[in-house]
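Q: Joint fold for the lines below.
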Amino acid sequence: MTTLRVALPKGRLFGDTAALFARLGCQGLPALANSRRLMYEDPEVGLGFILVKPSDVPVYVEHGAADLGVVGQDVLRELGRDVYEPLRLGFGRCRLVVAAPEAVAGSDWARRPTLRVATKYPRLARQHFSSRGLSVEIVPLAGSVELAPLAGLADLIVDLVDSGRTLAANNLREIETVMPSQACLIVNRASHKVHLQRVNALIAEIARLVGNGRGG
Amino acid sequence: MARPFVGALPYGVRDLFLEEAAQLTSLEDTWRRLFEAWAYQRIIPPTYEHYDVLLAGSGTELEEQVFRVLDREGNILALRSDLTTQVARIVGTKLYDLPLPLRFYYLASVYRYEEPQAGRQREFRQAGIELIGVDSAEADAEVLVLAVEALRRAGLSEFQLNVGHLGLFRALAAEAGPGVGQLDEVRAALNRKDCQGLAEALERARVRPAVATALARLPDLCGGPEILPEAARLSAHPAARAAVERLEAIHAALERRGLGGHVIYDLGETRGMGYYTGVAFEGFAPGLAFPLCSGGRYDDLIGRYGPPRPAVGLALVTERVRLALGSGHPALARPDLLVAGAVARDCWRQVECLRERGWRVEADLLERSEADLRALAAERGIPFLALAATEGQVFVVSAGRDEWLRWEALPEAPR
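A: Joint structure:
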């Protein structure tokens, strides 16, 4: 039996993902996070794991360096990679939102002559505003997006919100939702065809574990 | 702009040489013989054409990927991004009165402005066939059989053809109900096999419930021929019925040849070129994340250029097949026989005769000594070395033995 390789995201989604695969019988994952190792194989379950940055998960899977992966829908849509995403996993729920300081949020902001938007999601932000007919300037950032309006870099931000505490702490108010997001399972197209039965069985097993009848 | 280093290459093209070039040539030779054995005739369209003319066929799908060039009169030209559109133009405007069916094959370079991936650069080789004038399961099956045969003869044993049919989705879309606009979102979710996203998209598009239930089943209709009966129950629409019946007939034709094991069916896929109208397929091999070949039926394409003709075709991505075969670093190809300079000069008739028998014979142009020739043959693993000869006999070093042999006593070309 060939080992199927799964790309797991470091960071926010790792804990829940490791817990999910532990229920499938792969016990070594928490240890993986605490070591400097980035690969781990569980021959009994027939799965191997690699640990990568969340935004690299779809890249590994699209190129077949991993057969499956776990990644947030926000990251997946932003990257627009061609992979199957047969299952939502029900954890890592959050929203991608437009937020702004009260001075902007409480104003007629959409009519401002120029709107600068700071974000880690330039593609989704551009799509969102252009679908509303708004011309904006996108300022792509790599982190601490909440800082941008305070420092005068941007009027608005598009960023991920979980509890909303970070926004509040930086005096930002949520204006509208770009998309809801949660972790999902993704599959390489060729792996799906070539290992059809195993991949389908694995998807069904995970669907059962996350209590998802694949309905909603 | 600074002048590039003399060895620089633009992103997206590559040089092929030595073994790699030889392997590509031999693959294309293999496919040429295969296609000709099935009575396909070669067609050689030009490398560039009028942009508008190509776009009229291929539709806007490839628009972003087309390399555009201006000629000196300011006309927009396009490097071909696809051979099928060109063949359709030729058949529609020039060959429309020939007796049908027509069978064409091509071996050509294609240009697409996209990220190089899995062995495919922005310029890449395609080998393909087009079968024009017949809309039947037998015609579809012929093309699928040739896809399997082409991959087998290339030396692959493990591969899978993933066969879908656009008819089922289109029939269901036609029944989706009044007021249903674009189903783009539904189609995108189907292509991602995103069941939950599909359910949401169906709700947003207000698709009639019975049809929505059927569409929601599509992602699971992926597997062996056993999924076809269920697909048949999804819709009573004649086009949906016809699509499933077509796949059943294709499967029967493949089974008859013992090729059923190479094929799986996937009715959730609505991918492929925008001009596909019926069966559509892609080939995958283990370890390669991108398709090796793709093809499908395009009954409306030729009609955009002339009298309509049903047609079905296949294109193999030559570099990806090579990659699936596995290949090391290119090495210098090895001849079968190395002949000393004097032998090549004095006995050219006999040497020529060997070449005609299929031997690859390399003449030593550097007048090497016997010791150097022996060392060279050993180093490059050349199986035969001729050090001296007369009209009747040749002194051959082979497999560690030195002996005088009659020229005719040399065996058939090794390999």
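Q: Anything notable?
A: Chain A is about 35% helix and 30% strand. The interface with chain B takes residues 2, 62-65, 83-88, 184, 187-194, 196, 200, 212, 214-216 of chain A (CB under 8 Å).
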